[in-house]
Amino acid sequence: MGKQRVLSGIQPTGDLHLGNYLGAIRNWVEMQHHYDSYLFMADLHAITVPHDPAALAESTRRVAATYLACGIEQEYATIFVQSHVPAHSELAWLLMCITPLNWLEDMIQFKEKAIKQGENVGAGLLCYPVLQAADILLYEPDKVPVGEDQKQHLELTRDIAARLNYQFGQDDQPVLRLPEPMIRAEGARVMSLTDGTKKMSKSDPSELSRINLLDSPEQIAHKVKRCKTDSPRGLWFDDGDRPECHNLLTLYMILSGQPKATVAAECKDMGWGQFKPLLTDTLISVLAPIQEKYHAIIDEPGYLDGVLKQGKEKAEAIARPTLEKVKAALGYRVAG
Ligand code: TYM
User: Fold this and answer.
1) Ligand 1 in reach of 135 Cβ (< 6 A)
2) Who is most buried in 2, 172, 322, 325, counting CB within 10 A?
């Protein structure tokens, strides 16, 4: 039997942060040795909120370089740009026509982002989860490794596929395969540094709320120094009244690679003044090699373009036949 397949992606809107790394990329790095991996930059998603055309292509390259810098290897994974594979947009349209409107209006991310944009909400923001369903279903993956916030979109993807199978498939032969989400317990929801009840996010207006993977040691030290804390003496996990404490201890635990019990014992009598330098040093030592590799990749002329060109070809070879299969089920016949 061949390897199972995984697929996942990140929107190239701004630099990637610790949540993207711990919730998604870190898991992909481990999985690439066991799964046939398809990892992409969701640049069609990036224009669902106001964007700067002058920055789009560069942000997409930066995200690709970040994947590689974090340890994704071209030998095991296909790395590609969503907009380079036209089947994504085409399947999205076909799926849009079978998706009930009220399914989309229920999406939490739509509601949150729509509130932020007020009256200026584009239809793309509403329809974006259908594009995400197309991204996934085209590759017929077994698993989709993501952070907790994507769970609802994956459930929608399964519902859309099931609906298409029901309406257009034969009993013994579904048109599309239903994927499973894969959400790791640890790191699936990294919280903001300025509010432990909100997730760390690229769209938070405050830079102090997140650690970006490319932050300098000085920026990291500054952000950790300024992050929200509380007054009780001693630090411990799992206290609903101390969300910041739980979040920061969890970050330290994952980044230092220690078991929870070890960290709990190490930190139980600490004050913030003692813990913060420890977290700062751990962050800097985990991010330094990623940053070094990132700069080497970005500075090497032609390298990234080569990776993305090969990725596009490999991605198309999988996506195109799936699109043709769906078109045939919907009644389209090949031209000529
Ligand atoms: P995006 O770009 O918002 O996030 C990319 C990945 O990072 C995870 N993530 C987090 N994990 C833990 N804690 C956080 N604070 C945190 N913030 C983000 C996300 O769960 C995600 O795994 N719509 C998607 C991109 C996408 C996609 C797809 C993903 C488009 N098509 C197909 C999977 C499959 C998005 O906006 O993710």
Assistant:
1) yes
2) 322
